[in-house]
Design a protein that fits this description.
By secondary structure, the chain is mostly helical. It is 78% helix and 0% strand. Helix 1 packs across helix 4.
């Protein structure tokens, strides 16, 4: 990826998270990035394409970070599902946390036929599938059910913490997740 394209993505990511996607115009993005509209449109044909690439990169970066944490510190599948919310809590409490892109984007683009909403929905579903895979590897019978419960906890707590940092939502979501996981592991 070119340095300039990467800079535009970083600037757009920050502006979309701090000001809102619809409230951030292309003029603002190019001004903050120190570039021109022509350059922006060289890399992104439309603002919609820029939004989609921001969402994709944000999700890829988060997933890569989470995978690295889980694989570096835990080897057994049952441990990975147990430690999932420890790492999510670490991420939410970090200075890098600015919310969950797919949650914000789906709120700003509520029409289910919109490409941005479709991508947001897909990213939510993919994260739930990731959790289901962890649960399956940990021999949890209702892996999909547990994944839905844990993704709801994650999305709700992340949204609450984004709205009010230090609200305690992630701490209580982590406690609830541990109870759900332990209950799912014990089921015959």
């Amino acid at each position: 990826m070119s340095v300039l394209k990467d800079k535009i993505l970083v600037v757009a990511t920050d502006l979309f998270h701090t000001r809102g996607i619809n409230s951030t115009g292309v003029d603002t993005i190019v001004a903050v990035a120190g570039t021109t509209k022509m350059t922006l449109y060289k890399y992104f044909n439309t603002k919609e394409q820029l939004i989609i690439e921001v969402l994709q990169k944000s999700q890829q970066d988060f997933q890569a970070w989470l995978d690295e944490k889980l694989n570096a510190n835990t080897k057994k599948p049952a441990d990975k599902i147990q430690y999932l919310f420890d790492y999510i809590e670490e991420w939410v409490n970090s200075s890098a946390f600015i919310g969950v892109g797919f949650i914000k984007a789906s709120a700003e683009f509520p029409n289910e036929e919109n490409a941005i909403h479709k991508l947001s929905s897909q990213q939510s579903r993919e994260f739930r599938q990731f959790i289901s895979k962890l649960a399956t590897e940990a021999n949890i019978k209702d892996a999909d059910g547990l994944a839905l419960q844990l993704s709801l906890l994650f999305e709700g707590a992340a949204q609450a913490e984004q709205m009010k940092r230090g609200s305690g939502a992630i701490k209580y979501a982590k406690k609830a997740a541990k109870i759900l996981i332990e209950g799912a592991i014990k089921q015959p």
